[in-house]
Amino acid sequence: MTETTELILAPIRGITDCHFRTIFQNYFPGFDSALAPFINPQRSSSFQPKHLLDVLPENNLELPIIPQLLHTNPDEFLFLAHRLLNLGYKEVNWNLGCPAPMVTKKQRGSGLLPFPNRILSFLDQVIPKLGLKLSIKTRLGYENPHEIFELLPQLDQYPLAEIIIHGRLGCQMYRGEVDKDSFARCLDLSDHIIVYNGDITTKETFRELQQLFPAVHRWMIGRGALASPFLPGEIKGITVSDSQKQLREFHHELYCCYRELLDGPAHLLGRMKQLWVHLADSFPPQQKVWKKIKKCRTENKYLELIESLLR
Questions:
Q1: Is the dihedral of CA 74, 76, 81, 82 positive or negative?
Q2: 288: Cβ–Cβ under 8 A, 6 or more apart, which residues?
Q3: Fewer CB atoms near the end CB (10 Å): N or C, the chain?
Q4: Annotation: CATH topology of 6-236
């Protein structure tokens, strides 16, 4: 690992909210910053303070974050960006990577990548009035990598803070392997700082990627850190004396936090199960562990099972 290596927690909607980010960072140090999950698009006339709870500075004291916006309407994007500027933020991120069908069918997220002229028109209208740094999180394209190959050289005309590239297509969701060859070509096509994102699951995988892409110094990790919470620390050389105890205490604090915040056992268990979709990978045999957790319908059954796993 080089001294300039920086790790960024990826935005995973429904999991990496401000409560999770704070508790995770307290138990599993290693991340330098986080990209917050995108703020739900709202018309400026109906935008309420409650929509900003996840990015309020007082809710993000442990880990620096950059808020993410999904808007494709320049005026609405600017309205929200200026709200964030007033909160003290210096940078916002534009989401051009979300692969969720409910997003892409509206030509948002990665669903906008087949329309480069719309992306450039948006930037022409937004950047002169923004007043903040702007970064972009994207994919290799929605249907094929030629979409990003066409777009990247044209983005050189804009003063972007960085471009985060997940090495899959939007239509792939999270299926298949990342396309390292296409990511390598992206590095050659852009003068901007490029951040790597996609399938960093072990320290060994990370080292291999460092060898492949020596020009990359900023790395985004999402599902790999949810499945193996100690991964960011391992990459940074942080040792742990009692991993089982640490994981047990992390789960307990997160569980108690959501128990206070969420309305009833169904919502609580639903939230915790979203985490275990990934975390079960640390407890072989993974499928059996996940199936047992998925069947839990009461808090008592859930806690009994988790206690047996983390004992």
A1: positive
A2: none
A3: C
A4: TIM Barrel (3.20.20)
3-class SS letters over 102-134: HHHCCCCHHHHCCCHHHHHHHHHHHHHHHCCEE
How, if at all, do strands 91-96 and 68-69 pair? parallel
Please, what's the largest Cα pairwise distance for the chain? 57
Q: How far is CA 226 from CA 24, 136, 157, in A?
A: 10, 23, 36
What pLDDT digit, counting tens, does each position of 120-174 carry?
Answer: 999 999 999 999 999 999 999 999 999 999 999 999 999 999 999 999 999 999 9
DSSP strand pairing (218-221 vs 194-197): parallel
Spatial contact of 296 and 305, defined as CB atoms under 8 Å apart: yes
Residue 296 C-alpha from the chain's centroid: 28
Q: Which amino acid is at 111?
A: G
Tally the residues of the chain.
Answer: 311
Token pair, residue 113, equals 């990548």
User: Is residue 2 pLDDT above 50, yes or no?
Assistant: no
- Check the CA dihedral 73-69-219-138 and report its sign: negative
